[in-house]
Design a protein that fits this description.
3 copies of one chain form a homotrimer.
Chain A: H1 38-58, E1 68-73, H2 78-90, E2 94-98, H3 112-119, E3 125-130, H4 135-142, E4 147-152, H5 158-172, E5 179-183, H6 190-199, E6 205-209, H7 218-226, E7 231-234, H8 238-241, E8 246-249, H9 260-267, H10 274-278, E9 285-287, H11 308-326
Helix pairs in contact in A: 1-5, 1-11, 2-11, 3-4, 5-6, 5-11
Amino acid sequence: MSTYSPPNQSDNPYIPFGDQRSAPFYNKDILSVLQFTRADLDYIFGVAHEMREMVTRVGTFDLLKGKILANLFYEPSTRTSSSFTSAMERLGGSVIPINEVHYSSVSKGESLPDTVRTLECYVDVIVLRHPEVGASALAAKYARKPVINAGDGVEEHPTQALLDLFTIVEELGKVDGLSVTMLGDLKYGRTVHSLARLLTLFDVNLKFVSPEILRMPPEIISELDQKGIPQSEHFSLEPVISETDVLYVTRVQKERFEDLSAYESVRDAFVITLQTLNKTKERMIIMHPLPRVGEISMEVDDDPRAAYFRQMEYGLYVRMALLAMVLGKA
Amino acid sequence: MSTYSPPNQSDNPYIPFGDQRSAPFYNKDILSVLQFTRADLDYIFGVAHEMREMVTRVGTFDLLKGKILANLFYEPSTRTSSSFTSAMERLGGSVIPINEVHYSSVSKGESLPDTVRTLECYVDVIVLRHPEVGASALAAKYARKPVINAGDGVEEHPTQALLDLFTIVEELGKVDGLSVTMLGDLKYGRTVHSLARLLTLFDVNLKFVSPEILRMPPEIISELDQKGIPQSEHFSLEPVISETDVLYVTRVQKERFEDLSAYESVRDAFVITLQTLNKTKERMIIMHPLPRVGEISMEVDDDPRAAYFRQMEYGLYVRMALLAMVLGKA
Amino acid sequence: MSTYSPPNQSDNPYIPFGDQRSAPFYNKDILSVLQFTRADLDYIFGVAHEMREMVTRVGTFDLLKGKILANLFYEPSTRTSSSFTSAMERLGGSVIPINEVHYSSVSKGESLPDTVRTLECYVDVIVLRHPEVGASALAAKYARKPVINAGDGVEEHPTQALLDLFTIVEELGKVDGLSVTMLGDLKYGRTVHSLARLLTLFDVNLKFVSPEILRMPPEIISELDQKGIPQSEHFSLEPVISETDVLYVTRVQKERFEDLSAYESVRDAFVITLQTLNKTKERMIIMHPLPRVGEISMEVDDDPRAAYFRQMEYGLYVRMALLAMVLGKA
């Protein structure tokens, strides 16, 4: 679908399951975190919470029986691809995985619009992962069927931002009033950019902890300022850890540093260990978009505050909700 | 199955859905366009039309529930592979995708007959794409389960030819009496060869438009002559466009030309634009096997005569029909 | 699941289908042939036999409807992967194929425990193929969901050993009292090692026929000795073929030999032809784990003693049984 219009039922965010072609998000695209109002988020998370309950109680159900999803991945992402596949299958639908687009028509020079217009002859909804910024919007412009952006380029990965936020909601019961600390590579990390933007819809306090060369980009800082979000920057976790409700950890990649010694000198300051846990609130959560490579010590995994694997599971429920919604079944 | 015998119910081409092991094509292989009589085509297109109606009305149905398809692709083809996958899933069946045969047993030196005899232990029907001429016939010789040729080498891609013809039938309501113009690379294009052969079963008029070096091969010309098909060759679309009912466009590949200037000099004569549309009948269709890379201008896409994306959709119905038929359910 | 405890219902090995969370193997891992008692095997083969009957009678059934399998393959194996996929689909379940782990998070350096803990958020059971010894045990240690070893490194491929043994049971009606001859590469062949170990639970007679440089490893010989299994070694099939009930053929790879002439001199002695059949019992079976590359002549395939393609089919039933069992449905 080429145009997005916000749902008009924001006062009544939750509607029981059923075939509701007048429902919000029916036949809409999911392209950007910027498309959502706070009422939209309430609605999405209401449906995602129902999905969680139903998976817990009965495992799967046939809400999308007979529907087919094209999982069109122009770059590999096992995690995201598996999550959407599971979401569709847990709802009784089927999936056509298209992982090797580098081998296929696409490599013969076919344009994204043509690929999408061909695929939509076979399926009911398209999930697209693409290395280029704007690819999802382009696909959605030509497709008659709904398109869900599963990450395109450095900017947008809206379902990741939604699952991050849903994790906070489910784990801590609210978002307003929380102190959210983002740690690690805040310059290149698309997940922290999207989450920060989504959090502007709430009454939160943001703290950014990063090495000097990986600070949150000034344009995002200024965007948050304009929305009136209290924020502060730090080069160490120490001053903010004790008041943090949500610690969002990302990976500091060696390759970002010009020389190895600069990397070595900061590395340990951005690793979460049992010692870090000693300084936190008793009720707080540690998140990570995964994969991690050493930035959270494995000994932390068994602590109830370690929410990163549960975060993956919340992702399943959010994607189930989105699929059901755009297909008019939620 | 190793032998093909034509259906003997040609007077009564359409039979309602149900389990009919005596039905034509039950447990038969689909290997070549040459295997079909005109009565076969009537039967196949009758079933395919039913599939179209049922998909339009209810989306999917469980005709092949519990049946499993092995999608065995020795060379990549996203379009064909996705189409068969969707066809099976829209009928309630399951698919085992085997796309990476270059990594697998096959690359350990296993023969095609052994691969097929192993796979058929797991599935009910095998769709085979292979770079070598005759691969499907070889597979069918050893398999007890039905084999469908999804393209083997330069010669045969029978389901493509069937979907091309079905497109004409559904779009124009008939084949007899039509003037069909094939444009572009007629020398190497397997789709135009197969379609031309299939059209000999009908009362049509064929026009071939190509650069000198990409003319329809003499053996096909002579084969059509023997069947009494009126045909003519041209180096430009101009003289035939106004009387054309079906314009079948294929890609003229730069690599076919010895020097770039020869290519540049002919290229524009084989590109379809809005100007081309001005010269056509009001009721005619433009087809293309896709992918296209510039040989039909995108501005043409919105015209009702542009049938190439609908053509993809007809492919789904033809493949649904074939799967249901060889599994005895249509 | 990290711990394996043997089933405690060995006196009553077969239980009709149904949801039985107290059933043996519910939520257990399948990691090694060493984990099974003879009672376990009776139980597994009882369920596998039921699966065979049900597939023969009705094709598929919905025992695992709504369940999802992650087919996590760190190295390609079309045969094993397709077999598990079919097993899950024949039981009405769904599959998430993860074949390209070299492209994915894993290649970004993610640990196997993290990959498994992420995947299990999406699925109900994990089948793992991995090039390293012990990978399955490591995965099972961290996973809450059951893990099935589909081959890890040179040692273990327990479902292959189970299907080999099940083939013998179904084809010959018993295992006790049989003379089993293993032929070919007995040094590196993981299938013959596992099968030999599993056979120590029965009253069999083992004969090993191999070139000098590919003899059964001394540690296995001694392991079998300790279990009191009668065994003998030979460099030619001639002396043992006439008394063999099960001839298990494996491939002698050229690469194992230092010089080509050594290979050439022994090769023909390890090829099964119609001449070999002339010397065997009338009721015996020839097995092979496949793929074969010349070590059994194709002319042998049509003989009823050639059991190797049926062996693939028995593999389907064993894997259906294991999936149903670990998911508490058998």
